[in-house]
Amino acid sequence: MGNRTTQVGSVGIVVPKEFTFGTSTDPLTLESGRNLYPITVRYETYGTLNREKSNAILILHAFSGDAHVAGYKTEQDRYPGWWDPMVGPGKPFDTNKYFVICSNVLGGCQGTTGPSSINPATGNPYGLSFPLITIGDMVKVQRYLIDHLGIERLLTVVGGSMGGMQALEWAITYPDRVRSAIVIAATPRLTAQGIAFNAVGRNAITSDPNWNGGNYYGKDIPSRGLSIARMVGHITYLSEQSMHDKFGRRLQNREQYGFDFNDQFAVESYLEYQGDKFVERFDANSYIYISRAMDYFNLDEKYGSLEAAFRRTRAKFLIVSFTSDWLYPPKQSKEMVFALMKEGKDVSYAELDCPYGHDSFLIETERQGKLYSSFLENLYAH
Amino acid sequence: MGNRTTQVGSVGIVVPKEFTFGTSTDPLTLESGRNLYPITVRYETYGTLNREKSNAILILHAFSGDAHVAGYKTEQDRYPGWWDPMVGPGKPFDTNKYFVICSNVLGGCQGTTGPSSINPATGNPYGLSFPLITIGDMVKVQRYLIDHLGIERLLTVVGGSMGGMQALEWAITYPDRVRSAIVIAATPRLTAQGIAFNAVGRNAITSDPNWNGGNYYGKDIPSRGLSIARMVGHITYLSEQSMHDKFGRRLQNREQYGFDFNDQFAVESYLEYQGDKFVERFDANSYIYISRAMDYFNLDEKYGSLEAAFRRTRAKFLIVSFTSDWLYPPKQSKEMVFALMKEGKDVSYAELDCPYGHDSFLIETERQGKLYSSFLENLYAH
Hints:
Chain A is α/β, with parallel strands linked by helices and 382 residues long. Chain A has helices spanning 135-148, 162-173, 192-207, 223-237, 240-246, 266-281, 284-296, 299-303, 306-311, 330-342, 360-363, 366-380, and strands spanning 17-21, 28-29, 35-36, 39-46, 56-60, 87-88, 93-94, 99-103, 118-119, 124-125, 156-160, 180-184, 316-322, 347-352.
């Protein structure tokens, strides 16, 4: 156990990379049948690819995530990447040992081609002329990146929430390209309730007069609508318990009700802050396209049944859920575990008792860390 | 059991009534300390008050309800009142036996004074000059109505959701005026999550450019914002299971994904329809004021503790919750049951196994009906 003495550290300053592919004669064909080109992929890597190219880990981000998993963008950067406690020297995804990759998804707004990118046919941002995309399309773009990096087989694909959906698609679509899949707080399909929450967010955006049919680039953006969409989403990512523990019924800046419009509960103030902060970093059209990709996600429908979907897989699976996650609750993870077992696949399952709701995968990194590092060590040693 | 042979019927056409009280010298003093006058209360009654005035039942409506519980407004009216299966000859709240009253709440927009009413000081609608109100204020207005009807003691006060909050306030504030309280799908306080959902709805309304600081009467109304507020609310009233059973992942008007903006899931279409329908009958400012009254609701805070709140009550309680209600879940009802038991009060509790979420109190009327009618018969006979 040499790791015991390893210094745990940060990956430091990370310089993002870009990779572009796709031409008019060799475009990316999407699940819809539409073609798209060129496609730029923004990605980051941490650690070093070994000679055998057997130590590559692809991390897949959730709805509002990006390629910046760990470390800092600049010396002045105050906050590290979104899963920093998990990725670095001596950390669960140990960059002394593994080569870690993360890319911004297709349709995103953090460097990878999406609705805010320039449509080469017009010279203007795509807006709603960007084609509708799926989780499968995101994964296909990642496969181009992995090809580009010369990696034949990933040690693991790992992601939470929408990242878990991508990990599933990877294992099903490219069975020979992944040795394992860590699927966290995910679901085999978006439920009617999930679609409903997404629909509210989209309605908030498209009802904002600044949205202007998606044509707002270079003008006032639909910030109120996007902020409200984020507020709704945020509630679904937390549990009732974690909201209670964090805010309870505390007032913001007041001890007692004033019975006027300055009465504001701390939880309201927090949500509005989260909404406003989100607007600074996220594109409203990306919200529409990515949430729709999640709506479309349904393994049963795409492959005939969950069993049929998993039949083709060759990866070792680790499925993880959180007791307080009411958005993609444990029973949806268990459904996948049972289908994998039925197909005789190698699957482990962990249900972590954790109060933070769906966001547990981002917050509770200690137990997750132990789970993933031992899963990987075991796999990597053989 | 003479009821067995009673014909179950409709209350037929109901003519709403109005009662006005409050003057500059004798105003209604609100919990905030502010005075309000005049106050008009729109109400409906069904059945006949007996000579002893001992058969009066006050039904308390939920957030978006009104005084029109049962029967029809006109001969042409297609849909009956919101709890029609529960109120009528031979029905659980049997109008052959009981005198049933329901009034629109203070702050509402269905005939009772609220932000859309004319402010006598200006001759214009109140808008945001309407004072902030509480559940206690709604109940105080109802007490004026009960005084006006000459009823000393109500046989029962009964309501679901926000109606349950009012039933609680009645039993606590006017212990000598109620023989019993039926508290359905309620909570002793709004949780942080409940406040958060309300905050999203209010933000959607106030972000609508037509809202105009609440000054939209006689102009274009903030219909998009109000519609989105309703969509959010509606999701919280249903369970994941009931949404799945009703809509699943069905598309509206299509068999297969078209991967274009005409793809719409049935659940999206339903929510948008519900939102649009709501706008026709509800005032955006009422949404703001009533949701805030619910945010303020907290029996512990108001009375020191839940036990202290219930200590003063003299009513017999029937508390009812629904297994699938995740907005005001059974554990919140049980908390009240335990507090009542601790204070030695007469309390019965029923947790109904029902898939319809918070809205179960409106949808599942058969088991509720039996429960309430036997509770009342037993009470009325003694």
